[in-house]
Amino acid sequence: MKRTFLKITVAVAGIMTAFTLSSCNDSDNNMMDLSSQRTIIFENVITPKDFVESGNFQGTGAVPVILPGQSVSVKFSAGKTQALMFATMYGASKDWFFASQQPGIKLFETNGKAITGDVSSSVLLWDNGTKDNMTGQVESKPIAQVPNVNASQLMKLNLDYNEMTSEFTLTITNTSGGTANETPFSPGVWAVSNYNGSQLLNNAPFFTPNALSNPEITDIAQMGSIGKMTAKLSANTGIITGLSPALVVIYRGDKNPIYELGKMDNGMGLKEIAQFGNVSKLQSSLQSLPGIKGIYVAGNAPVPPGNKIMTNFKADPGDKIAYVTMFGFSNDWFYANEVSIDATVKGELSSKTALFDSGTGVDQYPGAGNRQALFGGTPQSESMVISKVGNQYPVPAVQNVIKVTVN
Questions:
Q1: Which residues are registered as beta bridge partners of 402?
Q2: pLDDT tens-place string over residues 29-65
Q3: CA pair distance 255, 337, nearest whole angstrom
Q4: What is the widest separation between alpha-carbon atoms in the chain?
Q5: How far is 65 from 199, CA to CA, in rounded Å?
Q6: Structural domains in the chain, sorted by start
Q7: Which helix (H) or strand (E) holds 56?
Q8: Which residues of 301-330 are buried (b: 16+ CB within 10 A; e: fewer)?
Q9: Phi (first) and psi of residue 164, to 5 degrees
């Protein structure tokens, strides 16, 4: 049955809790065990982060505020269900700030079509509740909308969208000039929450309406200072991913039967793993190849952070092992062993594992691309050779995402 592979499920965790991994040191990796029965384990060890992208913005003048008539733009990536949150001070106030409702500005219709054009109706004006609006004296009230002020008349928001890259550009224009609420905007912050396949990891970024404020948003609302919020966002921003069920092959010969670096995808089923986490086509195709001694599948569901999958396999002296699993929050990436591995070796194989681009789908920001399987999309087709994933995106190191062990 076809699965939308990135839907987070607890089934894998439940199945695997009966197993315990034993630690192994460097010497274990060089020890040979001639018994034929082995177990290979794939663990998702990535540390979840609340936000996939975040940043800040400011005016371009000597004083970095955004004055009436001035504009500033923010570029970011997102997929369906994700939203953009931002905050900036209403400068001519004691503790007011502009921001949208939680979890942020809606970016896609329910059918997956990007929202573009004027989205000024998304902006609201909030009272931080930490200073009296008249005297400026300290107070302690919940964050609430400012009454009788139409924020969309003071700030214009416009969205543009690049469908190929799934990248938005938000232009913020100060339109308060000549109104009763003319004001500069302070430097601001923005963020896009990570999505795990079923929900946003943070659906109330920056602040909680009708609750007391926090130090980070208070600094913005009272002083237009973004330092604390920027530091907090930075510490909680990063690419995360799920893993797909893993295909494991025991074989004889010098050529990895799953992929060949620098060559085009051969149509045997690697594309289906790299784009959708579906191992069935490659599993079937490999059965007809010479030198294949065994084909195994670890897991039958997505592998979220903190979970693991495993499979038993048989191997004899002279056999080799190869494996592959999808980098789930991508368009067409996969993890696989980079070098030839003796199938009778025990120990951790993570150092022998690398992240590859199958060359079959146009890349978008991992975890924020609307054509990714994570968002129910299909990658834009391309025909490139299989290559190692470079540094275009801040992807965590392999050992910080996947741990592969043979017992």
A1: 44
A2: 334 444 578 999 999 999 999 999 999 999 988 899 9
A3: 12
A4: 83
A5: 35
A6: 11-48+240-406 (2.60.40), 51-235 (no CATH)
A7: strand 51-57
A8: bbbbbebbbbbebebeeebbbbbbbbbbbb
A9: -60, -45
User: In this predicted model, what pLDDT tens digit does every residue of 151-161 receive, in sequence order?
Assistant: 999 999 999 99
**CA 305 to CA 325: how far, in whole Å?**
14
Q: Give the DSSP per-residue string, 99-142.
A: EESTT-EE-B-TTSPBP-EE-GGGEEEEE-SSB-TTT--B----
Amino acid at site 390: G
CB atoms within 10 A of CB 281: 15
Distances (CA, A) of 130 to 136, 149, 222, 304: 9, 19, 8, 40
pTM, two decimal places: 0.90
Residue 30: CB atoms within 10 Å: 9
**Contact yes or no for 270/256 (Cβ under 8 A):** no
Percent of the chain beyond pLDDT 70? 91
Q: CB-hemisphere CA count at 13 Å for 79?
A: 27
Query: How far, in Å, CA of 108 to CA of 369, rounded?
Result: 12
Q: Which residue has the tokens 């691309």?
A: 369
User: Which pair of structure tokens corresponds to residue 215?
Assistant: 């130090």
Structure tokens that stand for 321 in this block: 């092992």
Written as six digits, the tokens of 381 are: 């087709």
Residue type, 203: N
